[in-house]
């Protein structure tokens, strides 16, 4: 007696059950993320980013190390602040200053991501050619950029906020919400600034200006972080001023971090309004953006002539041409030069170079 008919009969209900389950999942996915909706576009953007990631043991070890550092520090800080009140008034000024610095750092990062997204328009052009409002496509792209901008800061503050909530300060979970809101505000401001610079200076000069401005902004934040070492008296005076309670509404950022409902809702409403405005303005500018022509024969002849002028000149010309083609190199080189400033200060302080200072600089 053959067992094949019996096996087929047993497998048929299982196959029908699997197909019904797959159909149910597809229907649920379509209901939650209709094709062309904002959630569908965000999921599409996330799939593209995940597909382009390369995994490996070295990357995994690096992620674990970078994750353990804020975990240990955040837990320790939350335990040390267990006895603090839910709203420590002397911290409101400092928290407001931290929020301003956070927006500036996020703006620098978001600016680079926005310019890269507007420059590499292959996949973006495909989405814009679909029957989907351009503002919705840009809003989805802005959400993806905001998530990338917010992720490093969320990794830093999440252990502290969660442990603080478990040890008697649930309102301090507002710090995580403020990070997300500030990322949305910074990304929206980056889209608006990019559109304004392209209108004022043109696409090529706007990219160069944005990279130089990013270097200057990063240098300013970095120099401010080194102020306790290079200008301790000035830094102490500023910290004393920040301990005073700022007047309303300048204390709202600090109160939002500590979980106050009204300031938190006000910041969230500001983030939503800026996001909607930025998506519409950027979509209008992207649709009417001019097409950049390819290099002509005259440029190709100049490039060939530069290589006949000698090796040193050819190398310098090549580096300058690379920077002109990819302005992001300006920020990469500039940031590395900024990080050398405290090293040089350590070496040459007092006009004397010693072995100990050289070792510290190394």
Structure description:
By secondary structure, the protein is mainly alpha-helical. Helices cover 79% and strands 0% of the residues. The protein contains 16 helices and no strands. The longest helix has 33 residues, at 134-166. The radius of gyration is 27 Å and the shape is globular. The termini are far apart. The relative contact order is 0.10. Mean pLDDT is 75; it is low at 290-295.
| Number of helical elements | 16
Instruction: Give the proportion of residues in helices.
Output: over 70%
Strand content: under 5%
Q: What's the mean pLDDT score?
A: 75
Give the helices and strands as they follow along the chain: HHHHHHHHHHHHHHHH
Label the overall shape.
globular
The overall strand count is 0
By helix and strand content, what is the structural category? mainly alpha
Entry summary:
The protein has 362 residues and is mostly helical.
Which terms summarize this structure?
single chain; 362 residues; 16 helices; globular
């Amino acid at each position: 007696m053959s067992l094949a008919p019996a096996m087929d009969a047993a497998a048929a209900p299982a196959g029908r059950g699997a197909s019904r389950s797959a159909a149910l999942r597809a229907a649920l996915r379509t209901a939650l993320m209709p094709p062309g909706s904002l959630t569908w576009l965000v999921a599409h953007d996330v799939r593209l980013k995940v597909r382009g990631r390369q995994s490996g043991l070295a990357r995994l070890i690096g992620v674990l190390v970078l994750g353990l550092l804020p975990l240990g520090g955040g837990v320790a800080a939350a335990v040390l602040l267990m006895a603090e009140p839910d709203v420590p008034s002397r911290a409101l000024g400092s928290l407001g200053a931290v929020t301003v610095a956070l927006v500036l750092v996020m703006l620098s990062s978001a600016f680079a991501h926005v310019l890269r997204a507007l420059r590499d328009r292959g996949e973006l052009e495909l989405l814009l050619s679909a029957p989907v409002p351009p503002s919705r496509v840009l809003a989805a792209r802005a959400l993806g950029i905001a998530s990338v901008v917010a992720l490093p800061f969320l990794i830093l503050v999440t252990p502290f906020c969660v442990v603080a909530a478990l040890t008697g300060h649930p309102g301090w979970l507002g710090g995580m919400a403020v990070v997300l809101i500030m990322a949305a505000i910074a990304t929206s401001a980056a889209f608006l600034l990019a559109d304004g610079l392209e209108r004022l200076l043109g696409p090529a000069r706007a990219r160069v200006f944005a990279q130089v401005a990013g270097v200057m902004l990063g240098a300013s934040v970095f120099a401010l972080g080194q102020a306790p070492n290079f200008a301790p008296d000035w830094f102490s005076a500023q910290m004393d001023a920040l301990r005073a309670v700022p007047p309303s509404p300048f204390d709202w950022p600090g109160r939002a971090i500590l979980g106050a409902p009204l300031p938190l809702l006000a910041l969230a409403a500001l983030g939503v309004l800026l996001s909607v405005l930025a998506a519409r303005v950027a979509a209008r500018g992207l649709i009417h953006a001019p097409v950049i022509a390819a290099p002509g024969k005259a440029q190709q002849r100049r490039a060939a002539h530069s290589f006949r002028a000698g090796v040193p000149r050819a190398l310098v010309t090549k580096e300058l041409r690379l920077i002109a083609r990819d302005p992001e190199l300006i920020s990469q080189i500039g940031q590395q030069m900024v990080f050398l400033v405290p090293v040089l200060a350590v070496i040459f302080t007092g006009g004397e170079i010693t072995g100990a200072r050289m070792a510290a600089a190394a």
